[in-house]
Amino acid sequence: MSDLLELKGVHTHIGAYHILHGVDFAVPAGQVTMLLGRNGAGKTTTLRTIMGLWAASQGSITFDGVPIGGPAAGEAARGRRGTPDIAQLGIAYVPENMGIFADLTVSENMLLAARGARSVAGLDTARLEWIFGLFPALKKFWLYPAGKLSGGQKQMLAIARAIVEPRRLLLIDEPSKGLAPAIVQNLIAALRELKSTATTILLVEQNFAMARALGDSVAVMDDGRVVHRGSMAELAGDEALQQRLLGLSLAVHQ
Questions:
Q1: Of 30, 44, 20, which Cα lies nearest the Cα of 172?
Q2: Is 130 inside any structural domain?
Q3: Which pick of 34, 68, 103, 215 has the fewest CB atoms within 10 Å?
Q4: What is the pLDDT of residues 41-65, one digit of tens each?
């Protein structure tokens, strides 16, 4: 299976701080790749660097063979390639804080994410119905201010906005954080459905039961570096490896 996204030797500096130290991993097309690691390992910085929110100071980031970040992309490309341009390639980012607009309705939030519609009435009806099948609460609260949704419903809205139009790659940062187990199971089911549509997903997650349920491949980070790459099934089946890489066992997160 070909790789849709590839990072090679990526370094990222934020001010005086050197956060990423030569990150190397690939995201196979059509799969869910888990990006795991302890708090502060550099996972969120990696996602933000891919999206161009922070610039890679060294190394390369390529999407479907096209350079999108790092000095390897060239001066001209770096001058043009910002987050909007990267999004135009079919990459969507769901940040940890979800980034919804609390004062706008659910429908207005969805409209803002849809490049092909100028009004709510112009949204793709068939795709909306598909999204409502994944997240029924969004249909129920379609005209409610997003700020009045529960935490789980806000997360559903954040993911729904990312897929209001077809995307080739989703970057999702800790979607289960702070959510009840039943809501987490709903998210797992929705992300499995997305995977079945050949959507490629790079997922940062601290809920290891969710990682085990969804992941095909995995990259584990520590101190700004990738220290392990392999299959999620291999990691899930090796408690000694889990303890060494993550400091805990997946067995306690069933």
A1: 44
A2: yes
A3: 103
A4: 999 999 999 999 999 999 999 999 9
User: What are the tokens at 249?
Assistant: 């066992």
Please report where in the chains the tokens 């790079």 appear, as a residue. 202
Q: Are residues 152 and 185 in the same domain?
A: no
Q: How far apart, in whole angstroms, are the C-alpha atoms of residue 200 and residue 28?
A: 8
pTM of the shown model: 0.90
Q: Kind of pairing, strands 91-94 and 66-69?
A: unpaired
* Residue labelled with tokens 């095909």: 216
* C-alpha pair distances (Å), 158 with each of 104, 110, 116: 13, 9, 18
